[in-house]
Amino acid sequence: MPRLSRSFFVQTLGLTAFMLSATAIAQTPAPPATATPADAALRAAALEVFSAIPTTPPTVREQPVSPAMAELGKMLFFEPRLSRSHIITCNTCHSLSTGGSDNIPTSIGHGFMRGPRNAPTVYNAVFNAAQFWDGRAANLREQAKGPVQASVEMNSTPERVVQTLNSIPEYVAAFRTAFPAAGGNAVSFDNMALAIESFEATLITPNAPFDRYLNGDNAALTAEQKTGLHLFMERGCSTCHSGVNLGGQAYFPFGVAERPGARILPDSDKGRFAVTQTEGDEFAFRAGPLRNIALTAPYFHSGQVWDLREAVAIMGSSQLGIQLSDADATAITAFLNALTAPMPTVTMPELPPSTATTPRPE
Amino acid sequence: MPRLSRSFFVQTLGLTAFMLSATAIAQTPAPPATATPADAALRAAALEVFSAIPTTPPTVREQPVSPAMAELGKMLFFEPRLSRSHIITCNTCHSLSTGGSDNIPTSIGHGFMRGPRNAPTVYNAVFNAAQFWDGRAANLREQAKGPVQASVEMNSTPERVVQTLNSIPEYVAAFRTAFPAAGGNAVSFDNMALAIESFEATLITPNAPFDRYLNGDNAALTAEQKTGLHLFMERGCSTCHSGVNLGGQAYFPFGVAERPGARILPDSDKGRFAVTQTEGDEFAFRAGPLRNIALTAPYFHSGQVWDLREAVAIMGSSQLGIQLSDADATAITAFLNALTAPMPTVTMPELPPSTATTPRPE
Question: What ipTM did this prediction achieve?
Answer without folding.
Answer: 0.89
